[in-house]
Amino acid sequence: MFSPVDWRRLESTTLPSICADLAKAAARVKCGHARSHPRARDGLTTLIQRGIIWFPNRESTETPSVWGGAGVLGVDMAVLTAHRHSTEVKSLVLLSGETFLPGQQFLRQASQLPGLFVAADDDENPPTEEVMEWIYGLSSNPGKRLVHYAGKKAPWNGFEDTGIPAAGTHGTDLFKTHPELPGIIVDWFVTTLIATPGHAPAEPLACASILNQLELPGGVAQVTKQLEEARRRDPKAQLFPEVVVTILGYDHLAVGETKLAVEIMRLVVTAYTDSADAYDSLSDAYLADGQKDSARQTAEKALALLDSHTAPESSWSDTEARRKLIRDGAQDNLKQLGTTR
Length: 341
Fold this sequence. Notes:
- This protein is α/β, with parallel strands linked by helices and 341 residues long.
- It is 50% helix and 9% strand.
- The chain starts with a helix and ends in a 5-residue tail after the last helix.
């Protein structure tokens, strides 16, 4: 199920205990620190196999940090538990199931809660895949992620609890047929619990409505206002992926719509203030629009961010090759403006 590498990454979180509420069962499994208690591994495996897991945070053994569910009851109970503990739960992992009306209403409202949704076309219990895509669409979090395994649709032969033979395509059986899935889940845990607690990078599919809104008259101003409102609730909130909106800005620049390109690139800088790439792109837009002083200032800001090494060069990349590209671009703009650095 989970490789030794995946387990080491889970252990590195130093979560003090692993607890389970096994789908209305009375038993609770509590295991100690994963580094010092080997049975924590068996405990976590059991919880994942049974369909519901939660990791308490470092301060308390009673406050859930992440909930995961598999199967109909597992998914619904995970969502409802996240609802009951909405200020503590930081992340959801949902496999092959559904949530009913109260859970659906919660997902619509819980814009602060990132979720990983996993489904397979050949799920042995149709229409699970369609339902998972539906509840993914209900989630209002811009960092939600859909893992969709394409395949041939399975025939409906009966309800899940009527002895339909397992085909390895439903719930935690997916770990066997898709051995990379545990690593995907671990990556999700590390991102939403350790690297950026309670947050996941904005995904293009999850942000489609925002991206479409940018193309409407007055759309950039409207999204800017929405970002300001979201930041008042959560200073780290993001509504769109940096790279996609940057590309959109360059698309408008390519057809001579320099004013709109400047507006779009300004929005990217507002959302991603530590991105050298964003400032370099804004400098390009200013230069094309004839705003030379602003082009100079933003090119110098891009270089200053690169030189500081206090943050990645952008939210989506931080390679030396990309850093060189940004540096060369900013320096070229300064040369065109009669400034050298």
